[in-house]
Structure formats: C-alpha cells, structure tokens
Amino acid sequence: METGEKQLCKDGYWVPVSSSSAVPTSSYFDMTNQFNEKVSYGEFTDPRDGKKYRTVELKNGVFMESYTVFAENLNYGKMISGGSVQEDSTKYCYDDDPWYCENGWGGLYTWSRAMNFPAVCDSVSIASEKCPNKFNLESDNEEFNGKYYFVQHQGICPEGWHVVNGGEWAYLDQKTGDSFAYYMGSKVAGFGSKNSYGLSILPAGYWLLYPSGTMAYDNITKQTVFWLPEQERDQANKAKLVNVLRNDMTRSTSRAKSEYAHSVRCVKNY
Q1: Residues in contact with 205: Cβ distance below 8 Å, sequence separation at least 6, in sequence order
Q2: How do strand 238-245 and strand 248-256 relate by DSSP bridges?
Q3: Nearest partner of 236 among 114, 152, 131, judged by Cα
C-alpha cells in the first residue's frame, strides 16, 4: 500500500496511511506559522497552571453573536507515558516527548480524562452505579437548555469554559464547506492553507491501544481527533468524536473511550 492511500482502521473507518507515522524527536516542526497573524487574537491565562492560550472570536454563532474558542489545543496536566492510567491532572504527549505538548500540539487525553471523570467511566456508562458522573445539561442560554448536542460540559477545561460540543463543531464546519482543514487548519506541517478564521488546528495525531495490547502514537501530520461530550447510545465503552483529515471532517463517529487519547479544545461558556 502506497503512502497517501487509506486503510480501514480497527474501529471501522478510513484513515490515511503514512510510511512512517511517528515523527522522530530529532525533527521538530517550525511553529512560526502556527497562527494567522492577520487575525485579531485574544489571550486567556489558565489560573490552574499559568499557561497562556490564544483565543479567537468567531462571529455569527448559532443562537448568539459569536463563540470564543481556544486557538490551540489544551495542554493541562503532567505528562505521563502512553498507556499509563490517566488520573487527575495528567496527559500524554505525542511520542512521550514533552516538546509536542509545550510547543502548540497540546496534550492527548483519554475520554474520561477529557471529561474530568474517573477512569472507570471509559468502560461503563455515565450515570451508572460504577460511574455516577453526568453531563451538565443546564445552560444559561435557554435555547440550549437540556439539549444533549449542545451540552456545556467543563471537563478538563478551565472554569468558565467547556469542551467544544457537537453543535459548536457543526457550526464551525458550516463556515468551511467541504474544506475544513483548508480554512481552519494551521499551516504547520502543511495541514491547512488559509487558516482564515485563526482556529489553527494542527494535525496532532493520537495515541492508541491495539487489540494485541501494542500501544503507539500515530498519524501526526495526517489527522487530528477531538473528543466530544457524548457517549455512544448503545455502546457504553465508546464515545463520540470529531475526526479531521487534510481534506475531510466527520462528526459523531465513535471510538473506544479507553483505547485512544485525543486532543481537546475549549470554548467560553455563554
């Protein structure tokens, strides 16, 4: 199979193939063009650890005038090695190399960690005896109150912010047509070309656990995935996600919660 073709991943959808998916730690990326300097960015300092994030205001939101979104991946927590149980304030960094976390690529989190739930919630349904945790379905905006698709769940985002939900990703998708990475992707690693809105999405890859027990970091420069605050209705061990490829974006597909670690973006509560 040649580089650039696609193969069926173990959880049932197509991903690009690369001849060597992991980037050696000796070949770091030039992050000069991570952001679009023609965009007017804000700045937010996470009070938990003092890390600063660029933010971007996206006009003409759904039911409100705008969204304020992190323009970079969340990077909260202490790095632990891939495959270790993620507990409070922990994360993976691509290739178990802190350079990626500290230089714009952000942390990689299992679903339960992204949602700020106990690790057991990766194996059982939320609101169950073993995992009594629930999403906050309340909202100050009555248009969203009780709507699962628009749940404002803080997860591991800072107070006053929440994990970007399915409705918000749908809005972002509508602004770009069929070329999400082209308009929303960072120019780093050639993922995006325009980065018109300044969202600066990076092809951060992910961590995964194969059925054989082998663990790997994969698909950096090719793909990025973001967890959603939704679990699969009939499969408690799976959760919904947003999958961004160079020329494609899919929403509401799902993966096993504990077998992957993905990126997190945060949006300001409204």
Answers
A1: 21, 22, 94, 217, 218, 219, 220, 221, 222, 223, 224
A2: antiparallel
A3: 131
Look up tokens 């300044």; give the residue: 198
DSSP per residue, 173-234: HHTTTT-HHHHHB-SGGG--S--TTS--B---BEEEE-TTS-EEEE-TTTEEEEEEEEE-SS
Q: Euclidean distance between the first and final Cα of the chain, in Å?
A: 47
Collect all residues with Cβ–Cβ distance below 8 Å to 142 and sequence separation of at least 6. none
pLDDT at 108 over 50: yes
Cα separation values, 89 from 140, 204, 254, 265, Å: 28, 20, 24, 16
Residue 97 in tokens: 């190399």
Phi/psi for 181 (5° steps) reads: -65, -35
In the chain, where does DSSP find H-type helix?
98-100, 111-114, 166-174, 180-184
User: Can you tell me whether residue 40 is helix, strand or coil?
Assistant: coil
Torsion of CA 175, 232, 132, 118, to 10 degrees: -80
* Kind of pairing between the strands at 260-261 and 248-256: unpaired
pTM of the model: 0.86
Supply the mean pLDDT for the chain.
Answer: 85
Contact 46, 76 (CB under 8 A): yes
Rounded to an integer, what distance in angstroms lies between the CA atom of residue 155 and that of residue 145? 18
For range 107-130, the mean pLDDT: 95
Give the pLDDT of residue 140: 59
- 7-16, 140-149, 216-225: least confidently modelled range: 7-16
Distance between CA atoms of 197 and 167, rounded to whole angstroms? Answer: 18
Burial zone of 119 (CB within 10 Å; 0-12 exposed, 13-18 middle, 19+ buried): middle
